[in-house]
Amino acid sequence: MVYSSLIIIVMVLLIGMAISVFILMWSDKRGQYRNVKAGAYVIFDEDEPVGQPQDQTFAKVPPPGGDGGGVPRRSAFGPSTYPEPPPGWRSDVDRSVKWPVLAYVGSAVFWLLVGSIFALLASFKFNFPDWLVEDAWLTFGRLRPAHLQTVIFGWLSMVGIGVGTWLWCRLLKTPLRNGGLMLVGCVLWNVGMVIGTIGLLAGFARSIEWVEFPVVAYLIIVAGFLLNNVALFRTLAHRRVQHLYVSIWYIGASLLWTPILLVTFLLPVYSGVPHATANWWFAHNILGLWLTPAALAAAYYFIPKVTGRPVYSYHLSIIGFWTLALFYNWAGAHHLVGGPPPQWVVTTGIVFSVMMIIPVVVVALNHHMTIVGRFRRVMASPTLRFVVFGAMSYTSVSIQGSLQSLRGWQEVTHFTHYTIAHSHLGVYAFATMIMFGALYYILPRLTGWEWRSSKLIAAHFWLVGMGIGAYVVALTVGGVIQGLAMLNPNVPFLAVVESTKLWLLIRSVSGTLMTIGHIIFAYLVFENIRKGGPQRDAPTLFPLARRQPAAASSK
Amino acid sequence: MTRSIVLFVGVIAAVLMSYTGLSLLPGLQLFDIEPTPGSSDYTFEEAQGRAVYIRDGCIYCHSQQIRPENFGADIARGWAPRPTKAGDYLYDDPHLLGTSRTGPDLSDIASRQPSWDWHMAHFYNPRAVSPGSVMPAYPFYFDVVEPGAVLASQRIVPLPAEYVPPDGKVVVAKEEVEHLYAYLMALRVEPLNAE
Chain B residues with CB inside 8 Å of A135's CB? Predict the structure, then answer.
């Protein structure tokens, strides 16, 4: 029975590969890869031309139906089969996505604050293990998964949908269809999060890493997810643009991947060691196929947009996308190096983890070469500063990830706090920072109101930037010390524990800095939505050093 | 790319391939392996204890997997006599392999520390028996009662002097921690004669 199934599975794999190769050949023959360079220019037009940096202002967007210029719009891809967007389409599109995006972003910021509180409680419990021990729901083993689930499925997933929806409609140049479905989806998502969080704390946790909520919570979240997808893919069918910009690929792919991940892993068919391999296939893919594409999609839009300079090489972005799609989802098994699964599973995980260097270097080249020479804009623009911080973290976390999957490295760092540092470098320094930057650009365009204070934005940046920096350094160093001590059988285990205490204290302090930053950010979002503070007619940028004369900046 | 359908069929094929490879294939390969000699299904009490282990997230600090002798110091530390293998985990649903060793591995805790007294004092306050430990205390696993109110079914937890409750009360174990102890005593790695 097993061998016949094995044959079927191998057949499926072969057919899958054959389909991929066929699609590649078909696309090439049909000229899908011709004129690739022109693709980088689809985010620019007369209203937002190449060479003109855009920032967090809404003031320069022409009013709906206004004079957008009578220049005929030509597509670089020959005669377009899609209608051209009317002048002033940006305002129309922004109006159509306003409430769905604000609903998702508002919920996300709420879950960010909740997740930060869980994080602080869990972290300080290492420093004061006899603190808050009387109540079962406040024990470390429940707070830690509550932190993970609220920041992943509450904050990052919901902000990803908010930012993704805005990008989706702006890049398809068409208003959102069925926005009401997205609002229902948002309500369902929040219901799932509340049921999940309370259920977990109340003692219905499942101790399956990255899926700790009771199953019913995920079913509600998936239902909300599918409603969103109906709205977004109906919008895609009404697109007014021939070429799909690379951000659309990332967002579209992740919208299809994530429900598949959740549904296939929630099937009650796993136990024992195969459960562990499925677990890490799932958990690593939530990072690689859901959070990463959303953040990369934002970086691919905002870096060229805010600098006013097209992506360095659009060719590379295509390679980067497909290598990520083909490699990342095999990498998860590196979480089981040295463990009981069959050797080939672990080896596959390591091989694909190392192959991830290709998409990472490609994306890194693209983002960094687009930025080169635009340092003053990075200093001046909150959006760019956060997004570039995130893009640089993506490069470091991914190179680190490829190298640390190797057996020699895992022997030391597996099971230590080092892993926690690595995951925060990815989920926070990369994905979360890019989302902050994206929101600084998007929200003023939706609310028609500029940010209250550039000083508070600066405070937010420095608090979370220094916080995550100290966090990652402390746990990386502490984790390596812990791992080396654990490798030496002559060091008693309690001495190993002792060696981590200082670093865990630094972690708590840096977590506190980040939480203060989150509170400032939440206040800024709140003020922006309720239109608090002075009315501005220019973007809230950081003031630059005096070296730059005032006249030059207004040029 | 101008054809969204091609793009999306391609990406779905990609993820289904890795799902087949990493989630289904190991299951089929290990479908008919025999349980390692010495391992057996959990009794009702042990399964109840396992549920407490899951509910309170022990997995976030304790692993249940032993790496080979030439890879890490798991065996040199005396955590178990041999590396664990897939046959050891046949009755584990969900799996509790764990990814963190903030605390020591528990695969073979029953052989390493069988003492009821030690475990109960450790749950009540880890620092009572392991000075410097960062494990949280679990006072909610216990009742603090008058000595006269202890039921016949309950056992009093012996504690070092500085952890004994004031005013002459005693600490007794609740049923859930008795179950948890029963589960820990089921965590055992038997040496294999053939190896």
Answer: 140
